[in-house]
Amino acid sequence: PPPNRARSGGSWLNRRESRPVQITDIFATVLELCGIEDTTTPRAPGLFAKDAAAARPIVTEYYYPRQTIEVYKDPAKRANPLLDPYRRRLRTIMLGGYKYIWADKGPQALYAIDEDPAEEHNLIDNPDYQETLAGLRSALAEWVTAHAVVRGDTTATPMRDLDGETVDALRSLGYLE
After folding, report:
1. Mean pLDDT throughout 114-122?
2. pLDDT at 154
3. For residue 1, pLDDT beyond 50
4. Hey, CA dihedral for 67, 83, 101, 154, is it positive or negative?
5. I want to staple 46 with a disulfide (CB 3.0 to 4.6 A). Which of 32, 116, 153, 168 is the partner?
6. What pLDDT is stored for residue 44 in this prediction?
């Protein structure tokens, strides 16, 4: 990973981050370095915080590329079954040496990424990992709820109502149906 370099309090902070970093970490780090306290959004500490090394989930989301698929004006091309694997939503959480991949349709997966970094052995049906799976599912649900994913889906609970102008803007950008 590239080194994180920032200037804080007149001195340079040089640090190499070996853990996966996500955009929310960057946001939290910038706020922290600017001395801005954000109490409106639940977030992990910035990368330079003393407790930044504490276990925290890495979460990713993939919503099928509706705009890309809809570029095909011909309905027959849009309905091509070769595009079906991409017409689904995925969420991934990495925590405690495991990676759980949730899908709204199609297979889900669980990997012990420390032991199986190539993700060759799906443990989702292995009875020895059901407690781990339940914990990751719970952690992912908590993260989704806490971060108020607003995409018009039923798997998220928005923290606040959006005004009509904002909803229209998000819809025009393809974020809402």
Report:
1. 96
2. 46
3. no
4. positive
5. 32
6. 65
Distance CA 42, CA 34 (A): 18
Residue the block writes with tokens 């939290």 = 28
Across residues 94-111, what is the average pLDDT?
Answer: 92
Nearest to 15 by CA among 46, 59, 54, 58: 46
Task: Give the per-residue SS3 of the chain.
Answer: CCEEEEEECCEEEEEECCCCCCHHHHHHHHHHHCCCCCCCCCCCCCCCCCCCCCCCCEEEEEECCHHHHCCCCCHHHHCCHHHHHHCCEEEEEEECCEEEEEECCCCCEEEECCCCCCCCCCCCCCHHHHHHHHHHHHHHHHHHHHCCCCCCCCCCCCCCCCCHHHHHHHHHCCCCC
Mean of the per-residue pLDDT values of the chain: 77
Residues with Cβ < 8 Å from 20, sequence gap 6 or more? 58, 94
